[in-house]
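The freezer alarm interrupted the setup, so I double-checked each line after restarting. Inputs confirmed:
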Amino acid sequence: MSSAILTDAPNGAPAAAPPPAAPGNAPLADGRSADAAQPWHFFVVASLAAATLAVIVSTRTAPEHLVMLSVTVFASGAAALAAYHVLSPLVAERRRRVFGASTRAALLAEKALALRTIKELEFDRAMGKVSEADFAEVAERLRARAMRVMQQLDGEPPR
Amino acid sequence: MSSLGNLALLAAFVVASYAVTISIVGARRRSTPLVESGIGAQYLVSALLLLASTVLISSFVSQDYSIKYVTANSDAAQPLFYRVTAFWGGLDGSILFWAVLLSICAVVAIRVNRETQRELIPYVVAIVAAVEMFFIFLMIVHNNPFDTFLADVPLDGRGMNPLLQTPLMVIHPPALYTGFVGMTIPFAFGLAALITGHLDDSWLLAVRRWTMIGWLFLSFGLTLGMIWAYEELGWGGYWGWDPVENAGLLPWFTATAFLHSLMVQERRGMLRVWNVTLVILTFLLTIFGTFMTRSGVVQSVHAFGEDKELAWLFTAFMIVVSVISFGFVIYRLPLLRARHELDSWVSKEAAFLVNNWILLFSAVFVLFATLFPTLSEAFMGQRLTVGPPFFNTWMLPIGLVLLTLTGVGPLLAWRKSTIINLRDSFLFPVGLGVVTAGVLAVLGVPMWASGLCFALCAFVTGTMAQEFFRGARVRQRSTGTGLFTALVGLFARQRRRYAGYIVHLGIVLMFLGFAGEGFKREEQVLLAPGQNVKVGRFEVRHEQLAVTDDGQKQMITARLAVSKNGAAMGEMSPAKWFYRKHESDPTTEVAIRRGAGEDLYIVLAGFDVERQSATLHVVVNPLVNWIWFGFGLLACGTILALLPEKVFAVALARVPEGAVTSALVVLLLAGGATHAHAQHQDGPSEGYVVPRTALERDLQKEIICMCRGCGRQRLSECTCSLADKMRKELAGLVSEGKTREQVYQHFIAAWGSQEPLASPIDLGFNRLAWAFPYALGLMGLGIATAVAVRWSRSPETALAAAPAAKPIDPALEQRLADELRDLD
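Predicted 3D structure, all chains:
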């Protein structure tokens, strides 16, 4: 998470608004449709085919051998998919996102934390575990932090 | 198959080194493609280690005895289930298992946090990959599980140690390892925060959850270890302060301290250096635990054996990690200053400070006592034993103080508790504790230590009940719901706090079980058929010995008729099993009759088939099952704290008030004890010498068995042949009229050192062992006081509070108020 959005200093950069998502066809981070064929689909199908072939040609027929053979083939398929994830970022078109910027997810998490902390503080006051003066000081700071994050989520510059 | 395994390991090492490099370069250049490639590399390491693991398991399943590790840990007669779990039954496989678990945890942590912790993730990937590199390196150069025989491939394996062929030992290592590797993730985030300088409280978000997961698994692993020791080792206890047990306990202490102190950082911005230090220490202690188990530095029934080369590799790794980690802590000290001062010693943060001091003291004390025999051998050339009596002398009062703090902490207010606060909060719990102590005193229960423990348990339970009741009343007033619905609402809205209280109640139950140890009764008797022995309310009559064989092992079983208060309870059958290929190491099958109040625990210590006589060790263990119930509650509390908020939102929305009450009743009624068989590997025992005098009985508890295979059990507990011999020797000395000191000197002369004594004699270099805890405690107290005084004197720093934003926008304030209201 960006430090900018978590410290009390109001220097967080506004987050880019996410592209609108059509129901049932949410875009992925790189703009592809979630409904389209994904690379992992290919690796799963290839692993299934390879495992089937391995089971057919295997000379050992005990169930435990065939299960372990299939699991080994699937592990190889997972390694191939992971290798794809190593190489594809290096050759794919540069993403629009800039590394280091605050993300919407981070801001939402920060907002949820701030709201929850305010509620905890209110509960502590009701239980008599925090003095009025202490409550006023901490609550004011937390409310200011929550509002700053809400502004950032709205895409407005913090004041 | 072994070639594929080797290839996977080599490839994993190369890819891990790529992940380290590309992630650091990507972070420095702020390049998304490089960072994402690094994340992909972490996935690839995980997949390759999974591939290596499946290859090794396949080799076990297909009985490929060309692989040395498969030969050493399995044979054709071994059931398939134990052939699969033999994967982590030996040293080499356990390192692979450690690495693959770490890589899986890392993949999950990265996927969950890659958006919310984008600044830290590249460094997290690099750090985890560097740790993985170390373990893969160990396998490649030193402990390769895929090493093969060049010639003379055996036709069958040697078989796994029978001691490990039990379901408990199947679950125990994965639980403990998951706890260990779980602590690597907080370390990676903590170090990444130090490297990047993003030391606001955001890194705690990711770390807290992972620490709780690791802590839960560590607790699970430790409890399973206790159950295993209780059911399998056959000495009637559950915790023998074995070095390997201690290895799991050390990071548990520091992780517990961290889980408390991070609340102080979140709420008050204090203990920032301390929290980073605890995260690093916890990780180092997990590595140290792995090192102790595998290097042979300490002697233990669980250890894999002596390996000096491995010890040096681990030492080098720990030194590198310490230098880098603490180097960054020092470098970042200006960013880690406390934001607030300590306003009062009567405050929650002060209680957490004391709690942390005691937990760290416990960790350092256990570490020192565990290593003292090694230090003594290195400096004085004398091997000795630091056994349960020494540990219990210190850990008993420490445990009681921690139990007290469990009840005190929740009652104190943040910043400062007023006299009125204290009176209102403490009146009921303290009253309950005092009344309990009074009733126990009237009943004649000894106050030290069981009576005090029961009274403190009542005090803590009173605290928790009061907290739940008051919290529910507050919520009831604010929401207008029923009391039970408000109680469930507490978990939804104040989940961490009230789930934490459930964990505290679990600890109370565990302490109840520990206190039961004070009422333990045991007898060792030699019985001919038809004879009986009475222990407590139980009467055990020996009927006959049975000799049977199931093809895998020969079994000698004693048939015993048991009654309680004169009412027959049925038959119990303790046994000894002689596995093929392991005939010289029979296992002991303990017979346990479980009960909520007490367990009847019978061990067949020796036998004579011709005379049909049996030597029995009969133990009545009061309250022992509350330890396992306590862990169950502790686990429930931790899982509740880990559950996402949505779960409670759904529950609150759909569950009617009456259903909540019904569910609580069902939960209270649920539960029950299980019965388990047990094994203990020991030498064949021909006869058990029953102590005839109080001195002999005491000495049997003060002198340990020197067989090295039983985990330094006391003579009163061990059932091996050497223990028999030593007991006979002891009986002879006592009958000759020798004093305690003379008996000590006899055994010291016979074994050439103080090793047979359960505790070192408080003389010369050994005085260090007894003085160290005092020195450590005073030093820790001094440091904690100095830090607190400094805090309480320091002016509010610039970091204390960012200037509050001026009223921004009435509409925004209204939205905030609405959202806060919606949270109710």
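Quick read of the result. Chain B touches chain A through 76 residues (CB under 8 Å).
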